[in-house]
Amino acid sequence: MGYKEILLKLPTDYTDDHLVIEIEKKINLKEFSYRIKRKSLDARSKYNIHWLIKVEVLSKHLKKNSPIESPVLHIPYRKRKEKIVVAGSGPAGFFCAYVLQKSGFNTTIIERGSEVNKRVEGIRVFESTGIFDSVSNYAFGEGGAGTFSDGKLTSRSKHILQERNFIISSYIESGAPEEIRYMAHPHLGSDNLKMLAINLREKFLNLGGNFLFETFLKDLKIENKIVKAVITSAGEIEADKFIIASGNSAYDTYRMLLRKGVRFRTKNFAIGSRVEHPQEIINKAQWGWEKIPGVKAAEYRLTSKGDGVFPVYTFCMCPGGAVVQAAAYENTNVVNGMSFYKRDGKFANAACVAGINLDKINGRTTSPHEALDWIERLEQNFYKYSGNFKVPFCGIKNFIKKKGNPKILESSYPLGIKSAPLWDLLPQEVSNSIQEGLKDFSRKIKGFDSGNIMGLDSKSSSPIQVIRGDDMLCDCFDNLYVAGEGSGYSGGIMSSGADGIKTAFAIIEKINL
Fold first, then answer.
1. Domain range list for the chain
2. Which of 3.40.50.1100, 3.30.1490.10, 3.40.1010.10, 3.30.70.2700 is the CATH number of 2-59?
3. Burial of 75 from C-beta contacts in 10 A (0-12 / 13-18 / 19+)
4. Which of 174, 168, 179, 181 is nearest to 195 (CA)?
5. Rounded to an integer, what distance in angstroms lies between the CA atom of residue 75 and that of residue 241?
6. How many Å apart are CA 364 and CA 366, to the nearest integer?
7. CA distance 221 to 82
């Protein structure tokens, strides 16, 4: 069988039949099979927006070549006696446990939040009443914070191709659309993520894994650098290996680990607010048109040097999405963004954050304890300003000028917005950098300064990082691992899932020695 790669330019509303015809023209053959390898939107010219599609074609009439096979993750299996506890069911925790269970371990996932369907109902009640639920919320529960997000599967992490392919294949086998394998900017949407969390849980349980919801990790039982058991709200659970994949919102878990001697260091991270615009403004600025057939909604990724102190950039852009309340604890106020797979909502939103260094802000070395206290105070101050879960907001023009009171406009945020001098609620150094960043962004995207900026977005990355070795073990411990966003080594679904898988393989290799 012969093989050839070809590149096609197709209109945004092309059909499968159209694609086949174009392949026929390109290779001058009628008999072939094909697979899309990569698909990206070329919008460099607003008068000629089209898809660029790389296709792998197989035919007996083509010259014999070997297609480049994508690396596959090979999970060694043997029946094992070792018991493993994984705390947290986000991408890092779940994929770590899933790989370990496939490898023959006896694996238990403990999750402080509820399972997906109960979580959905809890969030519905929260958004209609404003009464916070510590078990069913946007931060904690089955699938982690990512379950209620845009579900982006892009990552800047290098050397995770095998792990990425395993995660993508696992999602597709559990019902995700095939396109996530080849889209340049793949995303799942919160509607798909809820379904996938349930289907992946079933796969894990069918392998013999154990899943305990609404089970809060309270403490560790340690003897001579070895964790003997986790102490949870449901009792004590003994095991041979322990993985903490709590996510970066679990400040109480961080503090418990610090008390137990787990070593962390502070690191650079990002904070800021959420910007929101009618999606049609972004479409018009990016495409020159309010809508294009065959394309969901326009995206953007913006960077700026800010005021030269801290860089400013947009993060987690959610086309056709909504701003949501991502508080992990009562009396805190934190925003995030989400969207469904169709991305057909009225608004676009994105985090607009400054990459900060706390040592520079504080003028001295900041300890991990102090970093947690600093960011938690900020989240609490945003809650105190409104006295509830309404989010403080202002116009982007107001923020740039640092003055004025905008009218309360329509927003996707479900719990209400409150006019505020947002530039004064953020730390001055952050506010100054974001002010300059917004000026840059308003020059790059026409109409950008007509939008709103709202709330505190403090969850793009962890303020602290665990100290761990090449074997992924926490420093000074023989059987304790911290993985995912909570470790400070990853951010987002793909890199967190990959970090969990790498942790699983570190355990497999150690046991196999």
1. 2-59, 83-263+467-512, 268-457
2. 3.30.70.2700
3. middle
4. 174
5. 18
6. 6
7. 18
Q: Cβ distance 176 to 196 under 8 Å?
A: yes
Radius of gyration of the chain (CA): 24
CB environment 299-338: b (16+ within 10 A), e (fewer): bbebebebbebbbbbbbbbbbbbbbbbbbbbeebbbbbbb
CB atoms within 10 A of CB 370: 16
Q: For each successive 10 residues of the chain (513 residues), what is the average pLDDT? A: 94 97 95 95 94 95 83 94 97 98 98 97 96 95 94 87 97 97 96 97 98 98 96 97 96 97 97 98 96 96 95 96 96 97 97 97 96 98 97 96 84 96 97 98 97 96 96 96 96 96 96 71
The CA–CA distances, whole Å, from 236 to 220, 221, 232, 502 equal 9, 9, 6, 27
* DSSP H helical ranges for 1-47: 16-27
pLDDT of residue 511: 82
Distance from C-alpha of 176 to C-alpha of 272, rounded to nearest angstrom = 32
Which residues in 46-102 belong to E strands, given as ranges?
50-59, 83-87
* Matching residue, tokens 């570190």: 506
306: which residues sit within 8 A by CB, 6+ positions away?
312, 354, 432, 433, 434, 436, 437
Helix (H, G, I), strand (E, B) or coil at 154: coil
Query: What size, in residues, is the chain?
Result: 513
Q: How far apart are CA 123 and CA 143, in angstroms?
A: 15
Burial class (CB in 10 A: 0-12, 13-18, 19+), 510: middle
Q: How far apart are CA 6 and CA 331, in angstroms?
A: 56
Q: Of 272, 465, 460, whose CA–CA distance to 368 is shortest?
A: 465
CA distance 136 to 117: 10
Look up residue 479 and give its two tokens. 């059987």
Collapsing DSSP to helix, strand or coil, 10 comes out as: strand
What are the helix (H) ranges across 103-160? 116-129
Q: According to the model, what pLDDT value does residue 510 have?
A: 86
Residue range 83-263+467-512, CATH number: 3.50.50.60
Q: At what angle do helices 189-206 and 91-102 cross, to 10 degrees?
A: 30
268, amino acid identity: N
Dig out the tokens for 399 from the structure: 């923020």
> Do 217 and 112 meet the contact criterion of CB atoms below 8 Å apart?
yes
- Cα(181)–Cα(7) distance, rounded to whole angstroms? 17
Look at the block and give the residue holding tokens 């696992």: 170
Q: What is the pLDDT of residue 409?
A: 78
Query: How crowded is residue 384: how many other Cβ atoms within 10 Å of its Cβ?
Result: 12
Closest CA to 497 of 150, 73, 84, 93: 93
d(CA 54, CA 205): 38
Diameter over CA atoms, the chain = 71
